[in-house]
Structures
1.
Amino acid sequence: MSAALLPLERPTLSVIPVGPVLGAEISGVDLREALGAEAVGAIRAALLKHKVLFFRDQDISREDHVRFGRYFGELEGHPVTTHAEGFPEILVIEAADGMKLTKELLPIARPANKWHTDVTFREKPSLAGILRARNIPPIGGDTIFADTAAIYADLPDDMKSRIITLNAEHDIIKSYGYRVSEEKREQLHRDYPPVAHPIVRRHPETGENHLFVNSVFTTRILGLERNESDALLAYLFDRVKAPEYQVRFRWSPNAIAFWDNRATQHYGVLDYWPFERIVERVTVRGTDRPSK
């Protein structure tokens, strides 16, 4: 259930774009306070337009974090990532998504770090993520976001025609299988068997077409031979790396990033060793299965 709203009021928040393609910074709102319907509506509209929103200097409690997330839908946990004690809705994310960074882990974690859309292994991937900085390094640890509608729009016409009808398989084991026990892998496979999603997803609210494959969870394109599937996925995965489709967020104390998971990919830059980076996320549950 969404969080209860205060009566309508005229919001004082401002929305300032921070990138030419996506991203905006929101000010004039205190997320420690309950929000009214008009303010929530303005934030939702800004999210649909800019795809990722940034808030600064929001010294919120975990209760505030959960309340804010619930304005936008039901919240969900995660089958692998650790949650905050007493708050199953809040994921505690360290360097390697739950694995504490060490000197020994660094050469494994850095190559494993990839662009992704969250939890596409679910039949209904999450609607949004809301990430709050808890412990940030003095330098480094930025998060980069990419607009998957802009990426799709710039594909050659023959490539659009090629992929518009295709589906791809997404599997939790691709990302999490190596970091859990064999027993846990078997359980994950039972609970989250591979699912097929369209390579091109139509956004259920904006109607935009988005490229909907990612290198963390997408394993193969259905109906193609393995070598053809691998080559096509490699091409599509590579497009998200172009800076023209990105906005980069430098964290500050008590900053928050709020992204539309249906419209973006993101990448947490692992460049801050030996310092620590701990962030906490609430995840807004998806309400629809991706469709063309």
2.
Amino acid sequence: MSRVSIETVTMPELARFWSVLSATAGRYIQRQAAYAIELVRWPLFPTLYFLVLYLTYSVSGRSVIAGYPLAGFLVIGVAGMVFWTSNLWASGYAIEFERREGTLQSLFLSPASRSAVVLGYGVGSMLVMVLPTVAVLVAIALMLQISLSVASVPAVALSIGGLLLASISSGYVLAGFFVLTRRANVIANFLQAPVYLLSGAVLPVQELPGILQVFARIFPLSHGMDAVRASLLGGAAIADVQSSLVGIGLSSAFLIALGAALLRMVERNARNGAELDFE
């Protein structure tokens, strides 16, 4: 009896959640595809960023970083950076988009899942921004003849999935925070560079000053970078990346719980008639 009850309650809810998520992702893709510059800008920026970093490290005489070949270290770092940036400006900006369009209070008065809306923006950004960028980075990896050292395909899959989870949870926690502060654009621009540094995208976390290493390990992105590099470039097995995967899981769970609490605060303010539609 209890099993039947669970299915009848949760399956319709999951179906509604997926319906809202997929509809939001589709709308986001349509919006971005309407501006050709967006389709060019996203692959172009990380490509130029990679070239600047590659030339900088090469001129300094470093060909190996944290035990990995320079090009491989940076390609994975820039890919992770793109995951983070796309979620910052998509899932993180999801509720802010609704606020700017004047539909925020309608959203919170509707039965639609707010989490599904936020995640829908994130999924949409992954499809329209991340996939083309990753394709460009793969082309760069082939041109530079970056050699992979893969000993465990499941370890690679779990590591990449962990990096995606880390990116999505980092964007999710910002969705409510941006609206509550009413300074989304300023904070989003401020966060980009520090997170590039603390995530290990451009510099190994172990080379940061001690106090910054502590902050870096709070972010799930740094654990995701470690796991992907170890499994793709270092031949790591699941046991070797287990601690990184646990770090991703714990920090992502905390960010998702905090993000849900912030969204509830925004919803409560919207239902109580608070003025959220201004900077």
3.
Amino acid sequence: MSTSDSQIPLKTEHEFKDFLYWNFISLVLLFPAAFAIGMRSTGWLLVYIFLVFLHFYVLEQRFFCTHCPYYARGGKCVRCMMNWGCPKYFKPKPCPPGRFDVAITSLGFIIVILFPLPWLLKEPFLLAAYLIVIALFLLTMWRYECGRCVYFGCPFNRVPAELRKEFEEKEV
């Protein structure tokens, strides 16, 4: 694959350090939400933790990750930046995700993000921290991952068409 000085090569596999980085960022994102909920209700905090795990380790894996080339790689465990070492509960699907798959994944994200808002609205500092970390997470993902990811079926993939074509020709 040829690359110019301004073009970052595609990331064909993740390393454990990628997992550590992105999960640390995710924990920083979830901390203000969990703290705001936990200050007022242990029960609702447990519900939130359950929702987060349900979304990221069941729904997202089933409806989004199964379409990803990183998921399809050999082995019984996932080796990607978000779910390193997680067992593969579902069979890989070597096609782009359909509208239903994207809708379920998006709905899960929206629920996980919006669920803590009633508690965060009572804690303005935590709400501000939460919104800032969400923005930083999304901007960092968009800038450093989406432009070099080989999951071309992802709706957020920003790999230029010519680089995508060159990669696909080389892979065949």
4.
Amino acid sequence: MVVVHSSAKTVDDPAFQQTITEAESVLKADQRISDVVLPRPGTSISADRHTAIVQAGANADPNTMVRAADDLKVELRDLDSAGVEVSLTGASGMWSDFNTANREAMMKSELISWPVTLLILVLAFGSLVAAGLPLMLTILGLVASAGTLYLGTQVLDISIWAMNFALMFALALGIDYALFIVYRYRGALFGSEESVEEAVAETTDTAGKAVLFSGITVLISLTAVMLVPSPAFRSMALGIMISVVFILAATLTLLPAVLGKLGPRVDKLSLPWVHSGEHRSARFAAWAERLWRRPFAYGAISLIALLALAFPVLGLDTGMPSIKVVPTGDSSRVGYEQVQEAFGDGAPGALQIVSPGSEAASVLTVAKADPGIARVMPPMTGADGNVLIQVIPASDPSDPATGATIDRLRSGLSPEVLVGGAVAENHDLETLLKDKTPLVIGVVLVLGFLLLLVALQAPVLAAVGVLTSLLGTAAAFGVARLIFQEGHGSGILGFESRGSSTPWGPVFFFAMIFAISMDYTVFLLSSAKEHWDRNNDAKEAMVGGLAHSGRVIFAAAAVMVAVFFTFALSGPLPPKEMGVILGIAVLLDAFLVRLLLLPVLLRLLGVRAWWLPKWLRRILPDVKFGHG
């Protein structure tokens, strides 16, 4: 849809007519455009004659048409003159503008996140050389992931989100894993006075094993997203999985090699107050002792806070992205709003009904009688004898009422009649996501439990790890509902609430949040298991586990929150929503769950946390996180 509009002139003005003619020429000159339909009174010329729509048919697949919109919107914008505006809108135009804004936002966020991340790492490690190792690892993972995804685009259709998520996860997980490895290496080298070779071996055998299980947990969680039969979602999940594989490979091969080469020089350029080899944190040991003494008080605080934050999730509502995801000044949004003002709320989202010629009369009868339809366009017969009837909904394309109209039309028409168009496609995808959400969540929970069971050799503790992750995830979605659905804080974050959350959030964000939370669960509980295997002392398992992993979890969470929140500061609504939800999820999970609730549950369960029936011991592989 090319919208020609003037507040002063009408379609009868020569300048207005000349602009329409030039727009027609631009469209016809592009081989990706099939037919061009000029404005007609009563259908595509507004009643006040100040707005006219030139419609163009697609001569290629939807992805190619978005690239066509990239080119055409520039040429069409140059036709603005003498008080007449030209705007390219419609589905292809909207995604073209969104992709442009999204790319710019991601680049801006990356530029902001790198210096913030380096600062946090320097404070966490106290050494510039040690702080540079996670960044080195992450950069290599980013380059490998980006290169692989680029090669993938040569043979497959890969969503722009695949690159966004892959880069974000490579940055966050790369730093997470490197933190865990480097902390353990410094503790072994300086704290235990081992040789460099022994320190690398111990680090790989303990922290490396935990990182491997953590990475497998992330991959398993994302594999569940593949259950959604949508190429876009599968490519997004695949993009993240590729980045995780590269980060894992670099963490378990390249990083130990670099540490072995650096030896004691890993602490070069250190801050004056830093003490080499502090693997066991005295502060977190003291915090663990406090939790051990007063588990009910601290546990109640954490549990009440999480339940209160999770409660709003019961009213979570989802809806496909509307034109509000596009910046206000972009041509697709300008044209969209002009069409709505001139022709009605549903005009930008016409439904396309395709039927055999024999069914055309009944289609017209059903469409005209439906209360959700504002206008019915004249039928157009194709070369194959099928009839296309375009109908204009009475409600905005993103309004739930439009989805109800689509369902009514389909139920009232013959099975041979198809109701399609961009709006119907979005409605179908939203319905599919809602149907698949329980399955994906169930698969993620079951697989997460099984992996923790193998890693920890303790079914009760594996169940506790999964349930606490689920509670933290629910709390994050509860906060997300208050922000994005209810609009609280929209002014501060700089977005316009559309009254619902992104429909892929419950599926995709759940898998991502659960993967991150299990990341911290593995770090904490693998450290606890290492102490339990050493002396079967429940208190030492809880206190020692938190003392040895608390600082890593704290630093890693700080980096992740900083990374995710930088993505929330700029760009259109979906990446903003993604950054805020993931940032809040990490914040809640690290500080209320992993550093508070989970240690309290370890305290309350005591030796029962590590119970393992004999029949299960015979089945499970023998996994230990201790060295030697």
